[in-house]
């Protein structure tokens, strides 16, 4: 039972759980979460169209679009603006900056999608989406969430790095160290028993201690 005067907030999405389903109008027509099954999806929100920080982010996403595509990943933007505003802003970016935005942008005037994904942060913004970014895998599971304040732009290069790291962990059953880049050594999951820990030194990895071993994926 809700306390008087308190407004229930939507539940935040959770890692390794199904991403919230959506159906929304975009600059490329209707889109649903199911449209992206079989591919990775990066869904990212921005506070408003025709704002300078958001413009720099969209230009960066557009310039990296082919790199995301090469990793089997689609991009999908969102703000609490009309589709007319989105179209006008995309045209403005092409005219003023010479950059074409190749991915759709969700129209979310109802804040339905933004609410489901926790993009509205009371205390930071009540009517605009903060800079939230969601990594959704080919099975529609939410794998990573990154939130930035409205005043500071994101690093698109970091999102490419994180996407490669997630895909590497999935494919090889390993972890990746801080600021890991493709081609660098990966971390072997620690042993789960004392017997396995005793054997770890002789297993041929780059051995630091029983819980910290690395290897080259090419080896």
Task: Name a few traits of the molecule.
alpha+beta, 2 domains, 10 strands, Antioxidant, Horf6, Chain A, domain 2, elongated, five-stranded mixed beta sheet, Glutaredoxin, 28% helix, 219 residues, three-stranded antiparallel beta sheet
For the record, the CATH class of the largest domain is Alpha Beta
Multimeric organization? single chain
Calculate the terminal CA-CA distance, rounded to whole Å. 58 Å
CATH architecture of the largest domain: 3-Layer(aba) Sandwich
CATH fold call of the largest domain: Glutaredoxin
Count of alpha and pi helical runs:
6
**Overall SS class:** alpha+beta
Largest β sheet strand count, sense and barrel closure: 5 strands, mixed
CATH superfamily of the largest domain: Glutaredoxin
The overall pLDDT, averaged over residues, is 91
Side by side, the strands of the main sheet go 5-4-3-6-7
Q: What does the overall shape look like?
A: elongated
Radius of gyration equals 20 Å
Low-pLDDT runs:
1-8
Strand content: 15-25%
Q: SSE string, helix = H, strand = E? A: EEEHHEHEHEEHEHEE
Helix content: 25-40%
Q: Let me know the number of strands.
A: 10
The structural domain count equals: 2
Describe this structure in words.
This protein has six helices and ten strands. The chain has 219 residues and is of the alpha+beta class. The protein has a five-stranded mixed sheet with strand order 5-4-3-6-7. Strands 8-10-9 form a three-stranded antiparallel sheet, with no helix packed on it. It is elongated and about 65 Å long. It has helices at residues 52-63, 65-70, 83-97, 112-116, 156-172, 194-200, and strands spanning 23-26, 29-32, 40-45, 73-79, 105-107, 131-136, 142-148, 186-187, 206-209, 212-215.
């Amino acid at each position: 039972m809700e306390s008087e005067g308190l407004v229930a907030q939507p539940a935040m999405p959770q890692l390794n759980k199904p991403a919230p389903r959506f159906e929304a109008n975009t600059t490329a027509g209707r889109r649903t979460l199911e449209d992206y099954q079989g591919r990775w999806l990066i869904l990212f929100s921005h506070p408003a169209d025709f704002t300078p920080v958001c413009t720099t982010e969209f230009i960066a996403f557009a310039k990296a679009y082919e790199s995301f595509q090469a990793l089997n990943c689609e991009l999908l933007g969102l703000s609490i603006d009309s589709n007319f505003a989105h179209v006008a802003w995309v045209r403005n970016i092409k005219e003023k900056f010479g950059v074409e935005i190749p991915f759709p942008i969700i129209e979310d005037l109802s804040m339905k999608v933004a609410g489901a994904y926790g993009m509205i942060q009371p205390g930071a913004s009540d009517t605009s989406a903060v800079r939230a970014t969601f990594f959704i895998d080919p099975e529609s599971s939410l794998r990573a969430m990154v939130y930035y304040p409205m005043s500071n732009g994101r690093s698109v290069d970091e999102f490419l790095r994180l996407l490669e790291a997630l895909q590497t962990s999935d494919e090889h059953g390993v972890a990746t160290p801080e600021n890991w880049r493709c081609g660098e050594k990966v971390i072997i999951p620690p042993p789960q028993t004392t017997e396995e820990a005793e054997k770890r030194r002789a297993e041929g990895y780059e051995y630091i201690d029983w819980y910290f071993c690395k290897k080259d994926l090419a080896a």
